[in-house]
């Protein structure tokens, strides 16, 4: 699952540099309902693309934001989350993250901490939303405090992939966040690294210029 992905166009991640394309990833334990949420959102004619060799499924979604056509690629796992960790290329160039837990299984809520730590290792800046799924099973959970989101300063959505509650709202808001992140940050760390490289190049150039000039310098009278 390398980023050049042996010439498979779907996995050419350079396309995410284009203004009108965003990549949104989905994280969370197995069976919390990640795939069901995608399917619910894209219920009208979604076309998931199973790339099982690469342990992921891509869902494509076309939309319009501020009168501009935007193509969203949703990346969903295809089982790799069982190992409690995703391949780095899953995170590569992602513009937003949807982190899901199952309100009926406490452990999936606890595990958000490690998913979030891994996400921040690779993508320290991208917007991330926390999604409490399966509220249809017990509406009372919406009264409970899920402090993880508050503590991290992340938006929290109570949703149900089964009956559709809040699903469209959550996805649409996440897409907006992804777009605005892309437009405003232009990968801050990438930029810092580029600046540093340029700085070093300039310095080296100055140095070699200086050395060259020193070599050309006529001998000073003192040295005669
Ligand atoms: N009651 C209920 N069950 C759900 C909901 N979303 C998913 N499920 C069930 O949870 C199981 C795992 O869902 P899936 O989307 O495959 O989870 P994933 O492994 O995170 O992709 C399936 O049996 C779904 O039918 C929901 O909102 N409510
Ligand atoms: Mg799944």
TrEMBL record:
Biological process GO annotation list?
cilium assembly; microtubule-based movement
Q: Which GO terms describe its cellular component?
A: cilium
Pfam families the record matches: Ras
Q: Which UniProt keywords apply?
A: GTP-binding, Nucleotide-binding
| Keyword GTP-binding assigned | yes
The molecular function terms in GO held by this entry are:
GTP binding; GTPase activity
- Is GTP-binding one of the keywords? yes
UniProt xrefs under NCBIfam families: small_GTP (TIGR00231)
Q: What does the similarity note say?
A: Belongs to the small GTPase superfamily. Rab family.
Name of the protein in its database record: RAB, member of RAS oncogene family-like 2
Protein source organism: Salmo salar
Q: Which gene encodes it?
A: rabl2
């Amino acid at each position: 699952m390398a980023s050049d992905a042996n010439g498979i166009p779907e996995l050419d991640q350079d396309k995410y540099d284009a203004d009108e394309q965003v990549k949104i990833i989905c994280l969370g334990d197995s069976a919390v309902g990640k795939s069901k949420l995608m399917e619910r959102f894209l219920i009208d004619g979604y076309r998931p693309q199973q790339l099982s060799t690469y342990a992921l499924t891509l869902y494509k979604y076309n939309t319009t934001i501020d009168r501009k056509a935007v193509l969203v690629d949703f990346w969903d796992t295809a089982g790799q989350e069982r190992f409690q960790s995703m391949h780095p290329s899953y995170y590569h160039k992602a513009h937003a993250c949807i982190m899901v837990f199952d309100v009926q299984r406490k452990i999936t809520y606890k595990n958000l901490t490690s998913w979030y730590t891994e996400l921040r290792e690779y993508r320290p800046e991208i917007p991330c939303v926390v999604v409490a799924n399966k509220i249809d099973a017990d509406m009372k959970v919406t009264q409970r405090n899920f402090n993880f989101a508050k503590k991290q300063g992340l938006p929290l959505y109570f949703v149900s992939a089964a009956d559709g509650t809040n699903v469209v709202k959550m996805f649409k808001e996440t897409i907006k966040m992804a777009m605005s992140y892309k437009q405003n940050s232009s990968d801050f760390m990438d930029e810092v690294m580029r600046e540093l490289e340029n700085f070093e190049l300039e310095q080296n150039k100055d140095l070699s210029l200086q050395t060259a000039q020193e070599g050309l310098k006529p001998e000073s009278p003192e040295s005669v």
